[in-house]
Specification:
The protein is an alpha+beta fold. Helices cover about 30% and strands about 20% of the residues. Strand 7 and strand 8 form a beta hairpin. The N terminus is likely disordered. The structure holds N-hydroxy-L-asparagine.
Length: about 325
Amino acid sequence: MSMSRRQFVGRAAAGVITTAALSASAADPLPPSSGGAGPLIVSTWPFGKASNDAALKILRAGGSLLDAVERGIWVTESDVTNQSVGLAGTPNAAGVVQLDACIMYGPGHKAGSVAALEGIRHPISAARRVMEKTKHVMLVGEGARMFALEQGLESLPGNSREAYDNWMKKHPAPAANVPPPGPDNHDTIALLILGADGTIAGGCSTSGMGNKLPGRVGDSPILGSGLYVDNEVGAAGATGVGENVMRYCASFMIVEFMRQGMHPQEACRQVIQRIAKMDPKPVDQLSINFVALDKKGRFGAAGTDHGFKYSVTTEAKSEVLSNPGLG
Ligand code: SD4
């Protein structure tokens, strides 16, 4: 993250970072560690802050890490102004909103995922139920929807096409002329939490790329692509053009780079550089953005979209930080 000396000292004065972190970080532009006291929550985009704040509230009230991930993401899934997450998201080319989500829990390396899910208000809850109530990891399409309904998850009333159309009338999203994915047209939430006891969990939820082909699945519900959690190392999550993330298992790669000792921000940058080397597209057309945190309470992000920002929340502070660029 590029942080001016003044911003940096300002943060130190506000008590966000410890003296040790200050001296370690004054010489380099990486974000300071959260200091290790209390939870650290990192998510994509400025709207992630409201989800982070909700997640912190759950933790403060004694909720579990998974409750915090799930309920935090609920906030974004319920936000009808968000055109890339939840039922108010941008429809696919057939005019239907298909949702993707996944959740991971460090201990036991547990995971659940749903893709191309229709009509369910909180796909993150469906993903959690897949993890907790089935022997599977991923359910898709109608099977995922039937499972979510069986589990009693909130759905569009009636689950009919008419109900869907009525919902869409009340929550209009631009079905036509959707711009190609870019800083103004993608808003996936990936939310990572390092608990006070060092446990790590994360979740990711999206309606995916606007105007996608019906049945298209992006990176967001794919473990290792849109999200990856390793309880020994850290976690990473993605937002952007899924096709440019999932071909490279990008979140997994970020975690593996952190395993080798890389700072989360540096790991995000290195993965972008690695993808840029392999991908024939110019780097500024990749539209890939990542957030990461590690077991030590360090965090960071990097993205090819200049407008990409991310949200970081601790007991001391909740804030939106700028895309630090590619270094
Ligand atoms: C996808 N990665 O479906 C998602 C879209 C996204 O911010 O991240 N939007 O490709």
